[in-house]
Amino acid sequence: MQAARGTSLSDIENPSGTRRSPRRWTLFAVIAAVLYAIDQLSKWQAEKHLDGRADVSVVGDLLQLRLVYNPGAAFSLGTSYTVVLSCVAIAAAVAVVWFSRRLGSTVWAVALGFLMAGVCGNLTDRLLRDPGPLRGHVVDFLMLPNWPIFNVADICINVAAGLILVQAFRGVRLDGTRTSDEDTEA
């Protein structure tokens, strides 16, 4: 396929004019991989050092460590829907990879990297831990006052949600383009 004079082939394939940078996809992948590794390592350490122990105070009553196995979602909701939660997590991971192909914004790359790490971190527990595949319990160990016990993957998911909201409020699309005033009036 030949490009018109003054127009590159990448401009024809991406008529919005935004450039999908391999650097942004690489940033997404590196963030996802590093945070996933941190999540899994922290869970392994929690099981190794917290099993059978009383709560461990890290910062007084503000942050404590307590090992629990959560069959449900956030706040231990949906404990009898572990298989459904596992299937939703698989679909979410596939969707994140699909959307990551369109990255044209660094903030979106960071957000999707955090989201991928969080989803895959908890999904790994659901796939590989007792009582069995798709029914495994998630390792949680971080405890704040008056808040459910959570893990690094949960933090990643919440950071991703915050970044996605920021991008939505800023009107920045996944491909890096901005919503126009005409789009918001319609």
Automatic annotation (TrEMBL):
Record-level GO cellular component terms: plasma membrane
Residues annotated as catalytic: D140, D154
Pathway: Protein modification; lipoprotein biosynthesis (signal peptide cleavage)
Listed GO MF terms: aspartic-type endopeptidase activity
Chief site of localization: membrane
Biological processes per GO annotation: proteolysis
InterPro entries listed in its UniProt record: Peptidase_A8 (IPR001872)
Cell compartment(s), UniProt: Cell membrane
This protein's record includes keyword Nucleotidyltransferase: no
Keywords from the UniProt entry: Aspartyl protease, Cell membrane, Hydrolase, Membrane, Protease, Transmembrane, Transmembrane helix
Recorded topology in the membrane: Multi-pass membrane protein
Keyword Cell membrane carried by entry: yes
Residue segments, region Disordered: 1-20
EC number: 3.4.23.36
Top-rank EC class of the record's enzyme: hydrolase
Transmembrane parts of this sequence: 25-42, 73-99, 106-124, 144-166
Function: This protein specifically catalyzes the removal of signal peptides from prolipoproteins.
Family to which this protein belongs: Belongs to the peptidase A8 family.
Protein name, UniProt field: Lipoprotein signal peptidase
Organism: Nocardioides lianchengensis
Protein's gene: lspA
